[in-house]
Design goal:
Elements: H1 3-19, E1 25-26, E2 34-49, E3 55-57, E4 63-67, E5 76-86, E6 89-97, E7 104-108, E8 112-114, E9 126-131, E10 137-141, E11 147-148, H2 154-166, H3 181-187, H4 205-214, H5 218-229, H6 232-245, E12 251-252, H7 261-264, E13 278-279, H8 281-294, H9 297-302, E14 306-309, E15 312-315, E16 333-341, E17 345-352, E18 360-367, H10 370-383
Antiparallel strand pairs: 1-4, 2-5, 2-8, 3-4, 5-6, 6-7, 9-10, 9-18, 11-13, 12-13, 14-15, 16-17, 17-18
Helix pairs in contact: 2-4, 2-5, 2-8, 3-5, 4-5, 5-6
Length: 388
């Protein structure tokens, strides 16, 4: 093989790796082509990947359709079997297609095993589906491993706000101090703010509650924490004490808002030695369960799409609510909280109650497609039972 041909072949392989699993890639080589020795139709049968090895090709084997690594939880349906000859060797290949029929081609039989693919989430690093009624996890993925949870942390902050109002030591109409220089600066920050504290307005608990729940306002969450406990440090101690009282051993807080200390330091709100709140997916789900059980109004409050607070639009980024891109009427999602920082990735704790089923609480942490994967997780949880 001449050097120019070697370079061309290597470039083709490099593009194949770079473009990803779902991309059809032209692969040319000087090796003997694949020829069909025999072929037959077979009864449609479900298969799934045996490992991350293997790829699907066209029949001539000069175009790669997809890799098994790129489709870790896909069920493939086999309808044909063939013997291909390549050089001096022969092998049995299967013609496969995914359920939608959008990806199809030939793969060596040794890369697959019979049966439907087990359920899994491709992107979320940690996840759980919790039966709200029983408090038991019905499905999980590394659910006991603590990791940063970004603004999902606010469900604990809002629990303690609601608790103070419920026990009579605070009112919705109480005015919250918002003049701290750090809080004002945070509201003006493009990366850490968005909700502004204006000096000519006195913000109430209810206004900041709406800003924190719907708009995920970081300065509103911190100001509320100071209103609850008297200082930021005292409030974070309350957060940890509350987690301990619920026996949540995989929850540790250093921030009322979910921002990491690396961001909070610039505004004077760094607390503790750790950089971030570290909470497991299961403990997040259990915090959400306590919040809904004790203060069910959070579902009504959290299902509002958007609301103006002192003239500022507070937009709810839960895109599984009615009217949003990922809304599914069968799932009846009515909450609860999104979160994102570069460290934590996209996080989402969702909840809904399908007709005839128990309410489900789902958590996905460090995801890339948090709403799509939450849809899949909720549907899978319901497929396991959870009957009312």
């Amino acid at each position: 093989m001449r050097i120019s041909k070697v370079k061309g072949f290597l470039l083709a392989l490099l593009f194949a790796v770079t473009l990803g699993a779902a991309t059809s890639v032209q692969v040319t080589a000087d090796a003997a082509t694949y020829t069909t020795v025999a072929s037959k139709n077979v009864k449609k049968t479900a298969y799934h990947k045996k490992s991350t090895k293997g790829a699907i090709y066209n029949q001539a084997h000069n175009r790669r359709i997809a890799t098994m690594k790129g489709y870790p939880n896909t069920t493939w349906y086999v309808t044909k079997q063939a013997t291909f000859k390549h050089g001096n060797s022969k092998g049995i290949y299967l013609y496969v297609a995914n359920k939608a029929g959008s990806v199809k081609g030939w793969i060596w039989h040794g890369y697959l095993t019979k049966g439907k693919a087990p359920f899994g989430l491709k992107y979320a690093k940690n996840a759980v589906a919790l039966d709200y009624t029983t408090g038991k996890a019905v499905w999980s993925k590394s659910a006991n491993t603590p990791r940063p949870i970004a603004s999902v942390s606010k469900i604990m902050t809002l629990y303690l706000v609601l608790d103070k109002i419920e026990n009579g030591s605070g009112k919705w109409t109480d005015v919250v101090k918002t003049s701290d220089r750090g809080l004002v600066a945070m509201g003006n920050s493009a990366s850490c703010g968005g909700f502004r504290f204006y000096s000519n307005h006195k913000y109430t608990v209810k206004e900041l509650y709406d800003a924190a729940l719907l708009d995920s306002s970081n300065n509103a969450a911190i100001a509320l924490g100071q209103w609850v406990a008297g200082s930021n440090a005292k409030f974070i101690k309350m957060m940890n004490a509350q987690a301990k009282s619920w026996d949540l051993d995989r929850a540790s807080f250093v921030s009322a808002s979910g921002l990491e200390n690396s961001d909070l330091q610039a505004f004077g709100y760094r607390y503790g030695k750790a950089n971030a709140n570290m909470v497991s997916a299961k403990d997040v789900a259990l915090i959400a369960r306590h919040l809904i059980q004790d203060y069910p109004r959070v579902l009504t409050d959290g299902s509002v799409g958007s609301k103006k607070v002192n003239g500022q639009l507070c937009y709810n980024y839960n895109n599984m609510l009615p009217g949003r891109k990922y809304y599914k009427s069968s799932l009846q999602v009515d909450g609860l909280k999104t979160g994102y920082t570069p460290l934590a990735g996209y996080c989402f704790v969702g909840t809904g109650q399908k007709t005839g089923k128990h309410r489900v609480i789902t958590v996905v942490l460090h995801d890339e497609n948090e709403f799509t994967e939450t849809q899949s997780l909720m549907n899978h949880a319901y497929s396991l039972g959870m009957n009312a």
